[in-house]
Amino acid sequence: MQQMDGRKARGDESRRTVLARAIDIASMDGLEGLTIGRLASDVSASKSGVAALFGSKEQLQLATIEAASAVFTEAVIEPARAYPRGLRRVCALVRLWLGYSAERVFEGGCFFLAASVEYDSKPGPVRDGLLRTLAVWDGYLAASIGYAMEQGELPGLTDAEQLAFEINAIFNESNTRSLLHDSRVPYDRARTAIAARLLGLGAGPAALAEAGLG
């Protein structure tokens, strides 16, 4: 039993190592840029050993999406939960998302924006997996905005999903322009734009400042 547990632990560690490298490759070169051979070389493993962990390139791509989602959750969603539901949590999500992209948690910026561009017109299991993951983020952001509405913190807002769409659009543009120009300025502009939008909807400046967005 101990021998089996040891093999499983080593297998789990190998899988985590390979997926960490896979995420960075995919953020730079796309999910199609993932190959068993490249990963094996990068992590100093055998091709047969890496292949045994995933079975196929498609399964590797799907596992990479799941691993990237876990990293995003740890970097953005979990820390935001330290703030109460409502406007403060919305502001924290914005600040943390901008920081996650600006600090290059993934080498190529936001993994999910890169993957979305790559697979937006390619039906199949990988696109479906990506859509499921993005739906979790979209739903969480919209739900957080909804709580702020219910608590009267955004009196000028009538549609949480509309604001979530606008925030995501600003996120996407800041990530793209930052990568293109090798500059952090787009994140500053994104922060300013989102803060102004929230204030225009009746958000209290103190709430923004408390969550680090003001």
List the helices and strands and how they pair.
Layout: H1 2-29, H2 36-42, H3 47-54, H4 57-80, H5 87-102, H6 111-119, H7 125-150, H8 160-181, H9 185-200, H10 205-210
Helix pairs in contact: 1-4, 1-6, 2-3, 4-5, 4-7, 5-7, 5-8, 5-9, 6-7, 7-8, 8-9
Characterise this structure.
It is a single chain. The protein contains ten helices and no strands. With 214 residues, the protein is an all-alpha fold. The termini are far apart. 37% of the residues are buried. The mean pLDDT is 92.
Quick rundown:
With 214 residues, the chain is mainly α. It has helices spanning 2-29, 36-42, 47-54, 57-80, 87-102, 111-119, 125-150, 160-181, 185-200, 205-210. Helix 1 packs across helix 6, helix 2 (36-42) packs across helix 3 and helix 8 (160-181) runs antiparallel to helix 9.
